[in-house]
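As the next step, I selected for study a record pairing a protein sequence with its C-alpha cells, which the following lines show:
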Amino acid sequence: MTDPVWIPLLLSLKVAGWATLLATLAGTAAAYGLSRWRWPGRDLLDALLTLPLVLPPTVLGYYLLVLLGRRGVIGEVLAKWNIELVFTWQGAVIAASIVAFPLVFKSARAAFENVDIQLENAARVLGVGEVGIFFRVTLPLAARSILAGVLLAFARALGEFGATLMIAGNLPGRTQTLSVAIYEAVQAGDDRTANLLVLVTSITCVVVLLAAGKLVPKGASLRDGGGR
C-alpha cells in the first residue's frame, strides 16, 4: 500500500475511533435518560438528537463553523486559551462524532426500553443502588444492541465527508481522511489511488456491517435499533 493511501487510512481510523468513543458515551447516556424519565418535551429532544441523521452534512458543517469558528460562540471562547478546532483533526473528530451519535442513541434507546423493568425492580428489592442496577442489570441486558449501534456509528464516522471537509478542510497528513482523499483523487484524475481508497473503505464498512448484524438479537433489525 502506498503512502498516499496509508496515511489517510490511519488518520481515518484515529478520527473514527475517537468519534465513536464520544458518540458512545453521549449516546448511551442520552438514550438511558430518555428511556427512563418521563417529562414534557422528551419527544422534541429525541427529534433534535436524531437530527444529524437526516440533515445534509454540509448543513452540519455550517453549524459547526458558526459554533467553532474564531467568530463563533464557542470558538471565540476557545481562542482565549489558544485552542483552535477548525482545520484540525480534532475538528474532524467533532464532526464525525455528531453524525455518528444518532446511530448509538437510537440503538441504545430501543435496547433500554426493551429491558424488563421487573428485573430492575427485583434488584432494587435486593438493595442494589441505581448505579449498580444500571451496570449490573440494565447495561448487560442492552449491551448487544448498543454494541451493534456502536459498530454502525464507527462505519458512519469512517465514511464522513461533508461536515468533515467544511470544518477540518483537506490538509494531507493532517485532516485528509479516506473520504476526502477519495474526493481529491477523483478530482485529480488519479483513478488508481481512488480505486484503492474506495476498495479499502468498502471492505472495512462491509466487515463492520457483518459484525453489527451478528450482534443484533434475533427477530430484530438494525433499522429499529436492535430492540427485542
